[in-house]
Backbone:
């Protein structure tokens, strides 16, 4: 019931505003993606860790399919609100609609806006549009970068300060709050006391983004793999290792830097992101570079991407070779390191609709599963050091 | 040679003429209602408003913007004012709207509705081909045809 507080705040404020005679200016809009992913290997499937439910279907409609409805409200000159409800597969495998935006905004001045409630947590350059695939060239933002931080929401407060410097538009975006996410399977992960600052510069066709955030990390794995491992560790009396795998005393730091050039013909996008965790989850960094060229309504593009692990969840000598092997398997299943090359094509076949297709060749690292999940029995499959092709198709609409 | 040059020459003359007619009505003006409190509007301010970078006018009032239905006038307006082509501007506005950062311009069914909304004070700013303007509106800025 973590959704309740922001919704109650919104409801209360909307009602108090409603007492004023002024009719709010309301605009409804929506977006949807029907997407499918298919993999070349039969013992695994593509998964967006922390986003969708690792299932067994091939092709899988879970990773990319999403639908959302949004109302933008304005009450008078300064007060506004946004409410967005989306439905997409969760790590628990449900499609229950949930509020993804529920905030009030107040213009303190024409250039300074304060917002409170549920917002998108802006860890990346394109965080705001991670579900609005129509706004981006790809079927989905490159996983090597965007899987470094799966949190969608920020329940809290932020400031948007916009400054015009000649022809350059500068935006400062400090934010504070907390985030929660269910984890496959029956686990959960949360950020507390998150503090972050984003800076973005827009100059003509060029957008530059810089961001940094810190938070307290709590994480509880609860999948069969984890329970099996912790059972063995408990028997060996290794509570020191256990304390590094799950708990509520971690620290997380996150940084990102990106640019986007779009002159209407050429499209160049690049982003780098780094996450540092003291425990519970690994530390790593990733980057991608995308280059595309528009030919009328057609946009073919090429993306190169890489994620590297900087530090595994824990390092320890467990002595027993069988246990060491199980431990390494556990660490690998939580390491998304991989590299990939993608050829894609976007076709804007109607005013508010696009068809996209992407073919990706991915090499998972020797100590990581990458963005893949075993189909069937996890212990029987190994995702490490594999070369896997994926084919994605999607239809995006906005209305 | 000359026989093949004939039709070519005709095309060379006819094409700009045909396009000229297109451009003539694509001369676009940014307008407000005759009774509106907006006295002036700079090009930069207009750009910021139509990109959702700002939501208020210089006098602090919330700006209510109008869009024409999708079509050549709307495309020409955005290309001229913001430098973004139709696909870019649609993707751009979808990002603004769905992040809740900006309220999109309200879409009118056509020029007549735009004129009525401005006259009734239901909106503060719109763009229209200069050919359809009448006594109900005041021109703030003219975007010369390319």
Residues:
């Amino acid at each position: 019931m973590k959704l309740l507080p922001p919704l109650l705040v919104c409801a209360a404020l909307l009602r108090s505003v409603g007492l004023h005679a002024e009719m709010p200016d309301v605009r409804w809009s929506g977006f949807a993606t029907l997407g499918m992913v298919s993999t070349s290997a039969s013992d695994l499937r593509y998964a967006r860790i922390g986003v969708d439910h690792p299932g067994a279907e091939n092709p899988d409609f879970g990773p990319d399919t999403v639908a959302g409805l949004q109302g933008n409200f304005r009450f008078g000159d300064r007060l506004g609100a946004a409410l967005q409800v989306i439905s997409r597969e969760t790590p628990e495998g449900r499609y229950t609609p949930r509020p993804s935006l529920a905030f009030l905004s107040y213009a303190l001045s024409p250039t300074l806006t304060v917002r409170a409630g549920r917002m998108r947590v802006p860890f990346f350059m394109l965080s705001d549009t991670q579900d609005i695939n129509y706004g981006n060239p790809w079927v989905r933002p490159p996983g090597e970068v965007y899987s470094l931080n799966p949190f969608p929401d920020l329940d809290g407060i932020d400031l948007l300060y916009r400054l015009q410097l000649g022809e350059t538009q500068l935006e400062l975006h400090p934010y504070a709050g907390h985030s929660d996410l269910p984890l496959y399977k029956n686990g959960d992960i949360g950020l507390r006391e998150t503090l972050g600052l984003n800076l973005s510069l827009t100059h003509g066709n060029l957008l530059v983004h810089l961001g940094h955030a810190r938070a307290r990390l709590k994480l509880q794995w609860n999948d069969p793999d984890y329970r099996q491992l912790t059972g063995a560790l408990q028997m060996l009396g290794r509570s020191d290792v256990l304390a590094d795998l799950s708990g509520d005393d971690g620290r997380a730091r996150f940084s990102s830097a990106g640019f986007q050039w779009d002159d209407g013909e050429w499209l160049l996008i690049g982003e780098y992101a780094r996450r540092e965790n003291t425990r519970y989850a690994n530390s790593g960094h990733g980057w991608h570079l995308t280059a595309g060229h528009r030919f009328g309504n057609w946009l073919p593009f090429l993306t190169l991407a890489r994620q590297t692990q900087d530090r595994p969840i824990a390092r320890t000598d467990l002595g027993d070779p069988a246990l060491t092997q199980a431990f390494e398997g556990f660490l690998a299943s939580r390491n998304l390191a991989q590299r990939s090359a993608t050829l894609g094509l976007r076709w804007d076949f109607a005013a508010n609709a696009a068809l996209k297709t992407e073919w990706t060749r991915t090499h998972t690292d020797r100590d990581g599963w990458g963005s893949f999940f075993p189909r069937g029995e996890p212990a029987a499959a190994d995702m490490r050091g594999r070369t896997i092709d994926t084919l994605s198709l999607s239809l995006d609409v906005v209305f | 040679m000359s026989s093949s040059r004939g039709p070519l020459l005709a095309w060379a003359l006819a094409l700009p003429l045909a396009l000229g007619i297109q451009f003539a009505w694509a001369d676009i003006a940014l307008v407000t209602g005759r009774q509106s409190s907006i006295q002036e509007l700079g090009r930069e301010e207009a750009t910021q408003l139509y990109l959702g970078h700002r939501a208020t006018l210089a006098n602090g009032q919330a700006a209510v913007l109008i869009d024409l239905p999708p079509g050549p006038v709307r495309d020409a307006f955005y290309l001229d004012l913001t430098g973004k082509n139709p696909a870019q501007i649609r993707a751009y506005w979808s990002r603004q709207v769905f992040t809740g950062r900006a309220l999109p311009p309200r879409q009118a069914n056509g020029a007549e509705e735009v004129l009525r909304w401005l006259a009734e004070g239901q909106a503060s700013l719109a763009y229209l081909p200069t050919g359809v303007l009448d006594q109900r509106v005041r021109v703030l800025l003219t975007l010369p045809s390319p």
The two ends of chain A are 30 Å apart (CA to CA). The first strand of chain A starts at residue 25 and ends at 39. The mean pLDDT of chain A is 90. Residues 4-18 of chain A form the longest helix (15 residues).
